[in-house]
Design a protein that fits this description.
The protein is α/β, with parallel strands linked by helices. It is about 45% helix and about 15% strand. The strands form three sheets. A seven-stranded parallel beta sheet has the order 3-2-1-4-5-6-7, sandwiched between helices. Helix 1 (about 10-30) links the parallel strand 1 (about 1-5) and strand 2 (about 35-40). Helix 1 (about 10-30) packs across helix 16 (about 365-380), helix 3 crosses helix 4 (about 105-115) and helix 7 (about 185-195) packs across helix 12 (about 285-290). The chain binds uridine-diphosphate-N-acetylglucosamine (UD1) and uridine-5'-diphosphate.
């Protein structure tokens, strides 16, 4: 069997890395005929060293076999560019299975190419496997929601992280026998890395740990277009965070989209008072900061899941979440995007902790289950 996996943007790397490791484990036990050949494709949707290379190092990912180097552009141009560069690669490699992860433009673009390709040798196409299928925010103004819905419609195998996704896929008419509740590969990465993240020197270098004692601080990430592209929305969120920033340092690794908007909106020092802007961090440094934070404020998808797994209180500055299990059993609460709602949510999360629990199957074994399903599926064709 030959498997091709596509990565493109920051949140893809930690979802894909455990699958590559599980394939390596399978290969160590397999006969030569049962070994899986693997091809890693990087679309280059993210290309800055601290959004891409750093993750290859921290997650011990091999160098990509193919780099499409698409770079940034509008949605249409970026998606089209990925498709036209990916098609000849797929046609040449002819994998039996194409794995796409998450909900970024690279995910839908490569799934769409694979769904329509016809291999020259026998006219077939790869089995398309979507990892992190079925999540829905029910908000079609989010580009990711469009990517999720379309990718799931194109996929043959749907690997899901939580129960809500099983229900969403059933409602959209997808056959139950294509849906596999396997757990969360992003959490596989987290559990595999948390010990190494303990060796990060980030707390010391930010002055948040002195003589072994960690100071109280909060961690902030913001990059959703709806939150940062409009000045009004961005300033309202910062206003909601201000009372927190007057109590403890708020560390803010700034995504490049957000960095651009801070400059473009002319946000002045007062709006950012007490908020410490730093460059985006590598995976292990960020994991270390997340783990020791008193509170995380975010609009990231993945960070909602990681804080739930770590038991760290999380305030999500969005009106909705496609990851409801993090609010139902985890440590996440939805604050909306208005200053007052954010202030209240932060106060609530700073009060003595509401103990969360880790969602079912977020146990570090999701990638292994995925590989088992793929191997069983290929035996039947
Ligand atoms: C993308 C994903 C989003 C994901 C986020 C994770 C889509 C539609 N969006 O959003 O789901 O949550 O990544 O971080 O796929 N830029 C750089 N350097 C880079 C990459 C981007 O400077 O390496 C800047 C460019 O100015 C670019 C902007 O960031 O225009 C936005 O990048 P883009 O990939 O279009 O979307 P993200 O906001 O990163
Ligand atoms: N992350 C990181 N460094 C940062 C910010 C985030 O390593 O400075 C990690 C985070 O731990 C998670 C992933 O990036 O594993 C989430 O990606 P992002 O928030 O960009 O995308 P989303 O999950 O919103 O799609």
């Amino acid at each position: 069997m030959k498997i091709m996996t596509v990565v493109g943007a920051r949140p893809n790397f930690m979802k894909a890395a455990p699958i590559l490791k599980a394939i390596a484990v399978h290969n160590r036990a397999a006969s030569p005929a049962g070994a899986i050949r693997h091809v890693l494709v990087h679309t280059g949707q993210h290309y800055d060293a601290n959004l891409s290379d750093a993750f290859f190092k921290d997650l011990e990912l091999p160098r990509p076999d193919v780099s499409l180097q698409v770079g940034s552009a509008s949605h249409a141009v970026q998606t089209a560019e990925i498709m036209s560069r990916f098609e000849p690669v797929l046609a040449a490699e002819q994998p039996d299975v194409l794995i796409v992860v998450g909900d970024v433009n690279s995910t839908v673009a490569c799934a769409l190419v694979a769904a329509k390709i016809s291999y020259s040798a026998h006219g077939g196409r790869p089995v398309i496997a979507h990892v992190e299928a079925g999540l829905r925010s029910f908000d079609r103004t989010m580009p990711e929601e469009i990517n999720r819905i379309l990718t799931d419609q194109l996929a043959d195998l749907l690997f899901v992280t939580e129960e809500s996704a099983v229900r969403n896929l059933a409602r959209e008419g997808l056959a139950p026998d294509t849906v596999h509740f396997v757990g969360n590969t992003m959490i596989d990465s987290l559990l595999a890395s948390v010990e190494r993240a303990g060796e990060s020197g980030i707390l010391e270098s930010l002055g948040l740990r002195d003589n072994g004692a960690t100071k109280r601080y909060a961690l902030l990430t913001l990059h959703r277009p709806a939150n940062v592209d409009r000045r009004e929305a961005f300033t309202s969120i910062l206003e909601g965070i201000q009372p927190l920033a007057s109590q403890c340092p708020v560390v803010f690794p700034v995504h490049p989209r957000t960095r651009k908007q801070i400059a473009g909106h002319g946000l002045h020092d007062a709006a950012l008072a007490g908020i410490r802007l730093i460059e985006p961090l590598g995976y292990l440094d960020f994991l270390c900061l997340m783990r020791h934070a008193s509170l995380v404020v975010t609009d990231s998808g993945g960070v909602q899941e990681e804080t739930t797994c770590l038991g760290v209180p999380c305030v999500t500055v969005r009106e909705n979440t496609e990851r409801p299990v993090t609010t139902e059993v985890g440590t996440n609460i939805l604050a909306g995007v208005k200053a007052e709602g954010i202030r209240r949510a932060i106060e609530r999360q700073l009060a003595p902790a509401r103990p969360g629990s880790v969602p079912p199957l977020w146990d570090g074994q999701a990638a292994q289950r995925i590989v088992e399903v793929l191997v069983a599926r290929m035996r039947t064709v």
